[in-house]
Amino acid sequence: MPQLIGYILLIAAYIFVAGVAMSIGAVFGCCIALYNYCCAFFNNVKPEKI
Amino acid sequence: MKTQPAIKNYFFGKAYGDLKNTISESFTRNTDNAKDFFDKADGATLPSFYWGLSIATYVFGTAVFLFCSAFHIVFLSLVTIIIYLCFSFIWLLDAGYRKYQKIFTACPHCYTKSILPVYHCPKCNAKHDQLWAGPYGILQRTCKCGEKLPTTFFNGRKKLTASCPKCDKSIESLETRPIAIPIIGAPSVGKTFFVFSLVWYIKEQFARTKGFVFKFMNSYNENNYNSEISILHRGQYLRKTVENNPIALNFFLTKNKSKSLFFFYDSAGEAFSSTQNLVQHKFYDYFNGLIFIIDPFSIPSVYAKYQSNLSGNTSIKPSITPLEDVYDALIINLEKNYKIKTTERISKPVAIVFSKVDAFDLQNIIGENAAQKILKTEETVKTIEEARREVCKAFLKNNELEALYRKIEWKFGNSQFFAVNSSGKDSIGIDKVANWLLGEIDKSYKNI
User: Fold this and answer.
1) How confident is the model at residue B446 (pLDDT cuts 50, 70, 90)?
2) What pLDDT, in 10s, does the model give residues B254-305?
3) Which side of chain B, N or C, has fewer Cβ within a 10 Å radius?
4) From CA B98, how far away is CA B86, in angstroms rounded?
């Protein structure tokens, strides 16, 4: 029984760590993409020069 | 719309290119970042960290990229729709105002009709031939030189220097409704005398009594008028008009918000000797009224009757061109060049004017005296206008021109006969022509 609890806790720990890593990855990926879009926007969207 | 020497409005072109470039660059940046992280995993102490970053950039980055792109497209579409609605409203307002006010551009030099003249940039003189709301700007556009130009009737467009799109000559019409009145008649019927006497009456009496402001379009017209009217008032002959294609005599008549620009076209009588000469008279495409001048002495029987008196009178120069020839040239020109069918009547007002009515006893035959007499004696004649028509009809009939009278009466659905003497301030009957013709052209001139 204690062994089963140990496994469950281990799996829970793995899921927790994976979730945290995925969340950090998601925030990171979103930030990178947002930054890239902003850069692309300000590089390209400019009024026509005389 | 033709290419203009101006900067296109951002939302009419560049915005879509920018959108495409932004989406493309953003996607490239995302994939480059993801590849960089993947490459860094090789040889790293914790490769799974970089693999994670690479996957996160691919998966979540692409999701954010798709969201941002969609937001950009929707936002640009909304702004574009608003801009296009504004553009459509202003374009319709400007075009509707011109249509309602019957405003177009008529060149006094080459007679070309156009929607608007070519406007010139005040800074670099670049020619803008379609200066209205469009891809180059809604309320104003930016010239290639950087100067802002107004594009509507209500924000100063008409104050810009303008020229004719065809002949390049100056246009000073200030986006005013043109009223074009060609003067028709053989050589020596007295067209020039009539025009300047008519303008004198409109300037000195019609405008003053009816509260209009009279202003010549430019100094050329004013100087020309002043010079000719002073000659007329000295009792001298005006110089003969030699130009088959004359420059119009222009003046503004303004009252409150109503403003019109008059164009009197006084061509040399020789122009009516052939329809070929009239081809260039494009003003027959947009004329508002006609004045057909008849010299009574151009009628052979009238000339024969007064021949002995005329030979001793140097102040009267009878026209020798047959009346029917001038009428036929005019009608053939209208039918041939302006799509007026043979069976079609001309509904615009036409004043048939007998000139030189002060000579001998013509006042008692076709003049006001004769009309008044008929009005009193004939019960069927109810108005002075009918009386004038009757005396002129009788005059033509008695001189073997009844057929011409019938042709005139049928072809010109709205015509009136007058007998005048044109000598500036001492003219006879000019006021009646002006009041009738202007009243028929625009009811507001009649009702004031």
Assistant:
1) confident
2) 988 889 999 999 988 888 888 888 888 899 999 999 999 999 999 999 988 8
3) N
4) 18
Give which of B360, B362, B385, B361 is closest to B374, Cα–Cα: B385
Residue B109: what pLDDT? Answer: 93
Selecting from A33, A41, A43 the residue whose C-beta is nearest the C-beta of B30 gives A33
Q: Specify the 3-state DSSP secondary structure of B142.
A: strand
Residue scoring higher pLDDT (B328 or B236): B328
The reply to whether A50 falls in a domain is no
Interface test with B, best of A24, A28, A31, A32 (most B CBs within 10 A): A32
Total structural domains in chain A?
A: 1
Residue type, B386: E
Q: Where does a domain end: B100, B128, B162?
A: B100
Q: Would you say B442 and B206 are in contact if contact means Cβ atoms under 8 Å apart?
A: no
Residues B221 and B314 in one domain: yes
Task: State phi, psi for B74 to the nearest 5 degrees.
Answer: -65, -45
Per-residue pLDDT of B199-250, as tens digits, reads: 999 999 999 999 999 999 999 999 999 999 999 898 887 888 878 788 899 9
Higher pLDDT, B316 or B369: B369
A30 neighbourhood in chain B, CB within 8 Å: 60-61, 63-64
Average pLDDT in the B405-431 region? 91
Taking CB atoms within 8 Å and a gap of at least 24, the contacts of B396-402 are B399/B299, B399/B301, B399/B302, B400/B301, B401/B299, B401/B323, B401/B324
Q: What is the largest CA-CA distance in chain B?
A: 130
Residue B28, beta-bridge partner list: none
Chain-centroid distance of CA B424 in Å reads 27
In a shared domain, residues B181 and B307:
yes
Six-digit token pair at B96?
């509707």
**Largest alpha-carbon pair distance within chain A?**
80
> What range defines the domain where residue B410 resides?
177-447
- Please count the residues of chain B: 448
What is the domain extent for residue A18?
Answer: 1-45
Distance from CA of A39 to the nearest CA of B (A): 8
For residue B8 the two structure tokens come to: 């296109």
Q: B53 and A25: CB-CB below 8 Å?
A: yes
Judging contacts by C-beta atoms under 8 Å, the chain B residues touching residue A29 are 53, 56-61, 63-64
B337's tokens = 């060049």
Helix (H) or strand (E) holding B370: helix B368-377
What pLDDT score does B321 carry? 85
- Helices marked H in B146-190: none
Please give the ipTM for the structure prediction: 0.86
Number of domains within chain B: 2
Measure the CA–CA gap between A32 and A39, rounded to whole angstroms: 11
